[in-house]
Amino acid sequence: MTGRAPAGPPPSTARRSTLAGVLMGVGLAAFLDETVFHQLLHWHHFYDGAGADAGLVSDGFFHAAGWIAVVAGLFLFADLQRRGGALRRRLVGGVLAGWGAFQLYDGLVQHKLLGLHQIRYGVDLAAYDVVWNTAGGAGLVVGLLLLARRAPEPVR
Amino acid sequence: MSQHPGHDDVVAGTAPLVSSFPAALTAFLLAAAVTAAYLAAVAGLRRRGDRWPAARSLLWGAAAACVPLAAALPEALGLAGLRAHVLQHVLLAMVLPVAAALAAPATLALRTLRGRRRRALLALLHSRWARVVTSAPVVVVLEVSGFAVFFLTPLHHALAGRPVLTLLVHLHAVLAGYLFAALLLGRDPVRVRRSVTTRLVVLLLVAGSHDTIAKLLHASPPAGSAPGDAQAAARLLFGAGTVLDVVLAVLVLSGWYAAGSRQLARERRRSAQAPRSPKTAVSPRAT
User: Fold this and answer.
1) Distance CA A125, CA A142 (A)
2) CA A141, CA A145: separation in Å to the nearest integer?
3) CB atoms within 10 A of CB A142
4) Is the ipTM of this complex over 0.95?
5) CB nearest to A60's CB, from B211, B235, B264
6) What DSSP assignment string belongs to A68-79?
7) Per-residue pLDDT tens for B64-90?
C-alpha cells in the first residue's frame, strides 16, 4: 500500500492544544480568584487602600486578560474537539502551567511586590502566602514537565 | 413636578449631565428619527426582495433607546454625582456602540443609498482620514482617552451648565465606541477585517484600561465628589466593564468559530466529491 496513511494529528494541533490549555488555566486562576476569594469568601478586597498605582494597572489588565483567556480557551478547545480532538497531555500541561504562572504572578508580584491586596486580612499571612505560592509553583512545574515530555512518535 | 437635582450636587459639580425635560425630549425625538430612518431603509430592502435580519433592526432600536434612557434614567433612579455619570457612560459609550455596530448601519446604507450619496459614503469610507481613524492603535487611543479623561480629570465638573461641550463629549464617546465595536465585530465594512489575535489584543487594551480606571476612580476620587459616591460609581463601572468584556470576547470568538464551521463544511464537501467526480480520469495504477 502506497496510499497516504493517516499521519496523526496535524502539527498545529499540538501547539493549539497547549495554547487552549494555557488560556483555560489562566482563565481558571482569574475565575477562582474572582469568585472564590473576592465574592464568596470575601478574603480579597476590591481595593484596600494600599499599594502603588502600578498595582492597580496590573490588577485591571489581569482581570480583563483572565476573562478574555477563559472565553478564548474554551472556544479554542471546542474547535480542537470538532477537528478530531485536543491532545490531552498538552491540554492538561497547559492548564496547570497557565494556572500556576498566574497564581505565582498574583501571589508574588501583585500581593508582595506591588502590595496590591493580600490573601486575607486580620490573620498571620505567612501560612497563606506559603500555601498560595507553593501551589502555584507546583502547578507551573508539573505543567511544564508535562509539556516538555517528548510526544510518542506518530505511528507510520 | 419632577424633582430636580439638589443644590448639593451642583455645588459638588457632579450633577447629571443631561437631566432637564427638554434634553430628554430631544433625546427621545433623536432616537425616534434614527430608528425610523433605519426601518425605512430595511423596508426598502425587503420590497426589492433582499433579506435583512430582524435582529439587526431590534439592535438598532435598542442602541437608539440608549439616548433617551441616558437622559432620563439617572434622575428617574434618583442617582446623582459620579454614579449618574457612570450610568450614562454605560448606556452611551458601552451598550449603544456595541448594539449599533451589530446592527451594521454602514452595510445597510451602502445597500440602500443611490447615486451621489452612495459615492460620498464610499469616498468617506475609503478616505485617508478614515484609514487613520479606523486603524487599531488610533481606535484604542480614541476609546481609552475618552473615558480616562472623563473619569480621572475635572472634565465632568466643567460639563455642568455647558450643553454644547456635554454633547461633544458624549458624541466622542459614542463615535469612538462605534469604531471600537466595529473593529471587534467586523460586521460593518468600516475597514478590512483584522485577525482574531489583533481584535483580542485591542479588546484587552481597552478592557484592561477600563478596569484600571475603575480601580483608580475607587482609589482616588475626584475632588469635590460626595463621600462613597466614587466607590459606588467605580464598582458599577468595573462590573459593567467585566460583563461587556466577556460579551465582546464571546462575539469575537463565536464569529471565528462560525468561520471555522464554514471552512470545515467546505472541506467535507470537497473530500466527499473527490473520489467520484472525475469519471473519465483513469488512475495510473489501474492501467
Assistant:
1) 26
2) 6
3) 15
4) no
5) B211
6) HHHHHHHHHHHH
7) 999 999 988 888 888 878 888 899 999
User: Which of A56, A64, A71 is nearest residue B216 as measured by Cβ atoms?
Assistant: A56
Say whether pLDDT at B27 is over 50.
yes
Cβ–Cβ contacts within 10 Å for residue B214, how many? Answer: 28
Amino acid identity, position B177: G
Query: What is the distance, to the nearest Å, from the Cα of residue A13 to the centroid of all Cα atoms in its chain?
Result: 19
Q: How many residues does chain B have?
A: 287
- Report the residue of chain A nearest B254, measured CA to CA: A75
Question: What is the C-alpha separation between A92 and A78, in angstroms, rounded?
Answer: 15
Q: Considering only CB atoms, which chain A residues are within 8 Å of B238?
A: 46
pLDDT tens digit sequence for B95-123? 999 999 999 999 999 999 988 999 999 99
Those residues whose C-beta lies under 8 Å from the C-beta of residue B113, and which sit 6 or more positions away, are B121
Nearest CA in chain A to B251: A71
**Residue B12 pLDDT level (bands cut at 50, 70, 90):** very low
Q: HEC states along B61-100?
A: HHHHHHHHHHHHHHHHCCCCHHHHHHHHHHHHHHHHHHHH
Radius of gyration of the CA atoms of chain B, in A: 24
Q: B136: number of CA atoms within 13 Å, CB side?
A: 17
A72 touches B: beta carbon within 8 Å: yes
Name the residue ranges covered by the structural domains of chain B. Answer: 7-259
Domain ranges for chain A, please list them.
15-148
pLDDT for the residue B47:
92
Chain A residues with CB under 8 Å of B242 CB are 63, 67
pLDDT (0 to 100) of residue B216: 85
Query: Considering only alpha carbons, which residue of chain A is nearest residue B252?
Result: A72
Q: Which residue of A has its CA nearest to B211?
A: A60
Give the lowest-confidence range in A151-155, B105-109, B128-132, B216-220.
Answer: A151-155
Shortest Cα distance, chain B CAs vs residue A154, angstroms: 24
Residues in chain B closer than 8 A to A60 (CB atoms): 208-215
Q: What is the pTM of this model?
A: 0.82
The cell numbers describing B263, all together, are: 471552512
Whether A67 sits inside 8 A of B245 (CB atoms) is yes
